[in-house]
Protein 1
Amino acid sequence: MSDQQRPGDRADAFVFTPRKNGQSQSVSDELATWMSTGWADTELRDLDPIEQAPHTARRRAVLSAAFPGERLVVPAGQLVTRSNDTEYPFRAATDYVYLSGDTADGGCLVLTPDADGGHEALLYLKPRSDRENGEFWLGQYGELWTGRRNSLQEASVLFGVPTADVRTLPEDLRAGTATLRVVRGHDEEVDALVDEVRGDTGTEARAKSARLDEELRVELDDHRLVKDEWEVAQLQRAVDATVRGFNDVVAALPQAQDTSERFVEGTFFLRARVEGNDVGYGTIAASGANATTLHWTRNDGPVREGDLLLLDAGVETTTLYTADVTRTMPVSGTFTELQRKVYDLVYAAQEAGIAAVAPGRSFGDFHKASQRVLAEGLVEWGLLEGPVERVLELGLQRRYTLHGTGHMLGLDVHDCAAARQEAHLYGELEPGMVLTVEPGLYFQPDDLTVPEELRGTGARIEDDVLVTGEGRTVMSAGLPRSSAEVEAWLAERLPHP
Ligand code: GLY
Ligand code: MN
Ligand code: MN
């Protein structure tokens, strides 16, 4: 612990902070002394670098070139309390993972300008727990409780970046003179530290700093728009695992009818976990009228024969790339005439959307193509008054289509949301971009503008699509899409009585 330590420094935060349950109060000197000795040296394991190390190095070089002479601070984020002394499962900040490959909590990547006009990267990390001062078994983040961390030397080999003890981050940042930018919003302590070092007092200075930080965020989201080969392979792994999860859910549908939508959610999650993965967002398992609630994650409703089940779920790999897939299926195995009519219109809209995904097409095209098909159908059914051009111009179809037709996909499920509009929303698709195409129709149960028999019906079909040099690849093509294919899938996999 350095002499320069100040209240609030992270040196306080994880070195010998007694566990919150107060166990440290009852430790005898004899036990404390005994616990500090008799341990083998386990500081260094023989580790190989992570396979994405060349990619993270290239990404850091691109970032370096964008901000010559400036110091860039990219934190991983901290654990967040769930209740009392338990924490939410940790998920590292996307830009930190993208630039370092590390997925642990509490770290911070800093790119410092060097004499050659580039930057030196230094990865500040929590070191191993100190056994001599008792931190390893009495401290809040002691390894005896939370598990062995990489030693700084090991981490340096793993990530291909020099490492430092994160307790030295405050004094290192305070000692620098270069303009600072931070990826804000992930680690309050780091944000406060950067603010302190900048010494912004006035409103104008603070506004300027906020702009600097926002520019860094935008730049990083721009970089992440086009995926490299390694990232595409990770996304394909996530999608393939997701396909297996959907197949599991179909086989378990009859049991879900005995409990609730949570059986569906749990079945999908089981597949994610047994393969060593996680989910990239809260699974939406929405049966019947719940399918008309876009972010239905309570998943506590019944699954009934005769309902449509909308399942929107995605496996996230250990490298934190996520799939995002939706299928809508009749619980009984067969669509009713009305359900098929709704589903087939959504399917036609998705077909039109997928066909509009190609290099050089504008990002908005697939959305427009899908919305046109939906608007045409809604006018034909008499739900909207034509002509279709007027409906589209005024956006009237959105009462029933509700959301945009897709988004970028990657480390974040809604990836690259901060990217420059001219590169993203008003930009052109490029090979290596991955996006979802996910039109839907939602007739709310209390919507008096639709015929009674349609109320409470919702359907969405969502696939993950890679833009290629020639056109597109539907990465989630392992799952059926048309109503006939969905019924055949259910007939094959639903257990027969
Ligand atoms: N799962 C959220 C979405 O489809 O955008
Ligand atoms: Mn989704
Ligand atoms: Mn989506």
Protein 2
Amino acid sequence: MSSHYDLVVIGAGSGGVRAARMASTYGAKVAIIEEYRLGGTCVIRGCVPKKLFVLASRFPEQFDVAQSFGWSFGEPKFDWATLLANKNKEIDRLENIYGNILDGAKVETIRDRGVVTGPNSVRLAKAQQELTADRILVATGGRPFVPNIPGAEMGITSNEAFHLEKLPKRILVNGGGYIAVEFAGIFAGLGVETTLLYRGDQILRGFDADVREIVAEQMKARGVEIKLNSEITRMDRCASGNIDVSFSTDEVVDFGEVMFATGRVPNIEGLGLEKADVNLNAGRAIHVDAYSQTSCPSVYAVGDITNRVALTPVAIREGAAFAETVYNNNPTAVDHSIIPTAVFSEPEIGTVGLTEHDAGSSHAKINVYISTFRPMQNTLTARPEKMMFKLITDGETDKVLGVHIVGPTSGEMIQMVGIAVSMGATKADFDRTIAVHPTAAEELVTLKSPTYQLENGIRLA
Ligand code: NDP
């Protein structure tokens, strides 16, 4: 192992790997240091295994619907151990691919813990060796945050949820964000009695109000108990081995597992950032400029460690922009303003652009178009679930400001809609597009007159 590099990357997750391979492709001598597994949160214990679990959890509904289409079969049975083993195999395969990609790009992969010891030096904790580099990129991501509650150590986070030996009979999921709603859907779909506990008035703070309401309603219809305006005050192990959870509402209920999905914090501890005078911001994330450069000119940071927008594709884009800027002489800043995103809850959410509330507060006039209907696959069944399409436009320029979809495949749809919205499409552009029939997505181009309008944030009659 040679010890001087053009670039040393700490953390082989989505952002770090993309930056390392691009920098190397542009001719830099690059090492990437990873203490755990290659691929980071997304591949190892985030998006990818989560989506596999989501897919597994959706089969019971499909079995139900299939019968209305004439299918019959014996009682379906689910085996958690099989899902876990197959998931692990797939994650191993993906991790190998990450390793091959790095090797193929001639990036040196070092399996160790990297600690910054100065603006141009990183110490390998296990090998006890010092590396020097013209630049250091910190891409160490984040980890689950667990509130300081007596007994909280008995709970699990998403990290452990991917390795549970068996599914509990009853689970409490604490939190009302992405991870909480996704895991509540997974557990409920797999037959676990699931309670979602959120401290506020409605889950999914920050999402459009109609999305929040329809998702909460349909989660309840699918058997998830949603407890609002309540918090955990303590947790105690009871004689049965379950956990007695005391709530701020004075109730005590026992659960087989308690999962905290109460946010994530940047992984900065023990990284030695103070040795390079790297400034942090209020959320104890690394403060960076538009080009991901920190207060120390030779140190850069991308991904969740910077807490800009904690999404894998954003980290990848930031990693690529860093390499482009520094190693290809092409200054590139990531535009964080329009980011399409999906939540793989049940029902699924796809969203891009402004919520009605934000559009109403930032624009003098807005038009709101809403369409709700039963998706075709439910029309032969008694299932009541509906889809929702909501389009928000600027009343003065006709520009589409926000699109919010709830229901099957909305994550797939929003990727395409995101292209149009980021190009600045108007409602007239949507309307001019010929519908694809019969699909749910055609709703986007067939919305006629506004459902209602807002002027200066006030809804017109
Ligand atoms: P979120 O920030 O989305 O949600 C955290 C939730 O925990 C909020 O409901 C918050 O409440 C609540 N909370 C925070 N602190 C406490 C506390 N002390 N006591 C009780 N409740 C608390 O974080 P997640 O962990 O769900 O996800 C982290 C990030 O990962 C997301 O923001 C997202 O960017 C990304 N992600 C993306 C996915 C996707 O793209 N599909 C999937 C999973 C994660 P409040 O709203 O009141 O603050």
